[in-house]
Amino acid sequence: MIYTHPYPICEFDTERKGVICAQDLFEKTLPEKCVLTFFRRELNAFVQENNLMQIGEMHSEIVDIPIWLYEKDGEKIAMTMPFQCSAGAVSTVEELYARGCEKFIICGGAGSLIQGAKVGEIMLPTAAVRDEGASYHYLPPSREVEAPEETLQKTAQALREKNIPFVFGKTWTTDGFCRETPDMIERRRAEGCRMVEMETAGFYAAAKFYGLELAQLLYAGDDVSGAQWDNRSWNRREDIRRNLIDLSVELVKQL
């Protein structure tokens, strides 16, 4: 059943299966647990250091993304990178779920909306403002999509047990990387957003649609809280990024 609306982005179809369905295209050959990271250089280093075997790839017309197998103490974990933006996020989850993955830990960086937030501060997003497009094809229109609650709490408890500091917070998922205007930043901050990025709403919507266990770790990277953008060399913080990959591997084991 289609709920119509004057604006197409707000229309929603309750039909569960599309004409193109990932589950019709792939066999379930991947492990149940999966780590997704946006940190390509650090993942490549992890792959080399641990001598991981490639067990597949996700194909697109622009780039093919390898899928690696991490295996230790009888635990098998798929490790790969997602496609970018919310549409890429849901496409990644669609394919990996069709191929057998059902439990996800995702690590990435985000812009800080809070003045004084240190580079590397870890946030577990409790919800994402849906200022993008893909999530509206998986859930009815709403201002926000909340994190899968059980997985969020499991991940938080695991971080506490490891004595790793973190904060809960809301994130702003946007498709408009170059349209983060000062007034819009202030509006999102006023509604409680600590960070801004381009995928979380898509990840959460797809996880809720399929009933998946999924949690995300975002670290405060560049600073967009002031009058001018501060890059803070956030994408060169190899130590933070590598530590988050290692941490994500440990966290996904506990799901």
Overview of this structure, please?
This protein has about 260 residues and is α/β, with parallel strands linked by helices. It has a single domain (about 30-255), classed as Rossmann fold (3-Layer(aba) Sandwich). Helix content is about 30%, strand content about 30%. The protein is built from 7 helices and 12 strands. It has helices at about 20-25, 40-50, 85-100, 150-160, 180-190, 200-210, 240-255, and strands spanning about 1-5, 10-15, 35, 55-60, 65-70, 75-80, 105-110, 120-130, 145, 165-175, 195, 215-225. The strands form 2 sheets. It has a 5-stranded mixed barrel, surrounded by 4 helices. Strands 1-2 form a two-stranded antiparallel sheet. The chain is globular and about 50 Å long. The two termini are about 35 Å apart. The mean pLDDT is about 90.
In short:
With 255 residues, this protein is α/β, with parallel strands linked by helices.
Attribute tags:
two-stranded antiparallel ribbon; 255 residues; Rossmann fold; globular; alpha/beta; 7 helices; five-stranded mixed barrel
